[in-house]
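Working notes for the structural subgroup meeting. M.R. asked for a predicted model of this chain before we commit to crystallization trials. I am recording the input and output together here so anyone reviewing the notebook later can reproduce the run.

Input as submitted:
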Amino acid sequence: MAISKKIINGLIKTIQNLYLSDDIPWMIGYSGGKDSTAALQLVWIAIEGLPERQRVKPIHIMNTDTLVESPVVSKWVERSLDSMRKAAKEKKLPFVPEKLIPEYNNTFWVNLLGRGYPFPRKKLRWCTDRLKIQPVNKFVKEQIAEHGEIILVIGTRKAESARRAKTMAYYEKKRVRELLSPSSTMANELVFSPLEDWTDDDVWIFLMQYRNPWGYSNTDLLTLYRGATADNECPLMVEKGLPSCGKSRFGCWVCTMVEKDKSMEAMIANDDEKAWMTPLLEFRNRFGDETNDRGRRSFRKMKGNLQGTYKQLHHGPYLKYWREKWLEELLEIQKDINENGPEEFANLELITIPELRCIRRIWVFDKHEFEDSLPGIYKKVTGKKFDDPEWVGSEAFRKEEWDILEEVVNEAVNDLYSGEEMLFEMVYSLIDIENQATSLNKRKGITESLENCIRKTFYKNEEDATQYYMDRVIRKKDLGGKYNSLALDGRYDYLNEENEDEDEDAIE
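Returned structure, recorded in token form:
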């Protein structure tokens, strides 16, 4: 299908009729990319063409800010939303821009730097649900609870991929009303995809031929996409097989689901004014280094349990050293951009204060790292005192006591307990469990907590833990119980290492 004025006018009329057919409120997903912009623009033009008395049904424009979006794209979206608010107010249109963010306790940095989750990968994609899906679902559920039903307008297209085409065709057969498909994830949510049969070129032709109705620049959007392609070109209506601007990926700058962030690389290569983003790219490549990742993680899972295959243990969360190191690097990059980057990014936050507060509480209360190192790291980098007015922590043990304890334990290991790599963690955890129970006057369950701590840390080192795990598996096998047969399989291949992280349960 080649896009034409007739097709556009027909779609606009269809949207108007659909909007007026009931009292169900609308929601539009808007990322700032070409597809969501085109879908929103179609709806906006259609609604603006209605008499004012008919524009009564609210249309929520949902933008999900993961807090780790590409700074350039994030700034673009922020300004676009501001333009929408202004235009909607001036033209008396029912559009309501909504900026959705994940809960601070569940952001990318809180999970990676706080809890120590391994960076996302194909078989451990913990980020999408937490950062994007949950904030949207929460908002949608609130609207459904209030109105009973909602219509979600999205810019998805069959031409995006074979998988997307198959999925859309499946739900197309299940349509409960003309043009409205049931949601695959949520009851009482109907989905409308006005661009479902469009190609990349159709999208760009529409955006170039129809002025952006909220006063933003579609030409600048094209420039943004062009800058994110390796050859700095975005051909339209060209021969089959030639590149298109549709393949540029805009998303989280921390994304490790791709081997290389080619879009950011292209932005930097194509525009000297974006060279300030180079440290972001380099930092992403460092913590997303698959080759060296295993050695940066504990040989136990988050809860301290052991899992393994191919006669080796699966590694779990990042060790204290790496979590602190990466936090310091992140703050240093943020400070450098604020001070030396473009003026419009002088207040850029790569990590927010609420996230830092959450990380602090995880380190101190969950991981028993009573050193409370985060305020010191923050002050070292920024020169400012860390602001945390609601902090209620024990003052009995802090960095000085931590350093003394570490020195004493290291001396004991060197003199008496050679190779006892887990001794320091066991000691500081036991001390902190007792201290927390005393300071908070919560003695219930203290014995169980102390016992669990010992079970998690009684291993001498990883070799000792591996032998313990293998002996346990063999014992289960010999007794006729259920056991992990892969643990006894010695045919290890490096490619099988990815099996460590088959699902999110493996994190814990």
